[in-house]
Amino acid sequence: MNKIGTYRWRICALLFFATTINYLDRQVIGLLKPVLEDQFNWSETDYSNIVITFQAAYAISLLGFGGIIDRIGTKLGYTISIIVWSIAAMLHALATGTLSFAFMRGLLGLGEAGNFPAAIKTTAEWFPKNERALATGIFNSGANIGAVAAPILVPWILGVYGWEMAFIVTGAIGFIWLIFWWFYYEVPSKHKMLSKEEFDYIHADKEEKDENQDPVKWGRLFGFKQTYAFVFGKMLTDPIWWFFLFWLPSYFNERFHLDLKKPSIELIIVYTATTIGSIGGGWLSGWLINKGWPSFKARKYSMLGFALAVVPIMMARYCDNIWQAVALISLAAAAHQAWSANIYSIATDMFPKKAVSSVIGIGGMAGSVGGIFFPMIVGFLLDKYKLAGDINDGYNIIFLLCGSAYVLAWAIIYTLAPKLETANID
What we know:
mainly alpha; transmembrane helix; MFS_dom; transmembrane; MFS transporter
């Protein structure tokens, strides 16, 4: 490792902190939900509509951002993304009701959509195949760190300064990261601090050495079954993660009377587990590849294990104390992040670097479309059963859907692309 060089891991650290900020900013509203519901008299459907607005804007922007980043590059693309989303996060402090909150969430979604297309393309540029899942798992664990930091930081700011300042403080952090990104990032071929040995190692994959770098027309990607494998994998599983982010705090509050005005050790444990899942899931498939497994086989069996690990969340309906629920949900959330590290990596396995951001954008849009419809279902179920006198029955149905989504997604991915064959774009 020392002979090769380690600068690529510094780049991974930048991606990690950007993703941490990304999820910190989007998680704030979930923690403030009980306070905002009381102040603005929201129903579960009102809140779900605000979430849907974010998802819709996120979906539309993902589709555009992916292609834009493939053309203007990761450095400028990431810069534009974090400026937009940081400003949008701070502007939440000016919201005065449901409509204005929905507008701010939409603007936040437009900016935050640039994070994953830029980060995955950066990973493809800076890491060989055997390290991409691990690098993705590490930077993607920033989502979990952001979700862990939020239950600590937000209640404290809320108690001392009010909910408006919670949005302002968390939103401003993005501008600090931007300074480091602008001064320390560049693509490998232009980076002055990258050694020749590390550059050669990054570009060691034989099939990528002579790759034609002409931009790919976005519409052409819909002609490949590999695109649809990634699309369905994201569409079926991304909404489950959105549910974990936006509804878990209120689930614990309503089911077990957790006080969200104080730092919540239960939520910290859940989101800490996802960090272990993200890094461990990325490490596992990379370890199997280094052991001599073909990359498609390593991804296939790793992802099957992660899909099965989500299934026990169906048993959450039988939990009669909070720690049983924390255990089941922690396992499912960790498995999701392990799955996520690998599904992003299969996109870089199946497509050349010049098309990666576009493919990630298309798949991310599909995940967000799923994220639009799933909150509709969640809002409908929770309002229906709240009126009937037992909101827990609504959560029970939702957990059944969560537990089955990953196995179905796995089956579709490996039916469409059983060996994750590289798309013959050229």
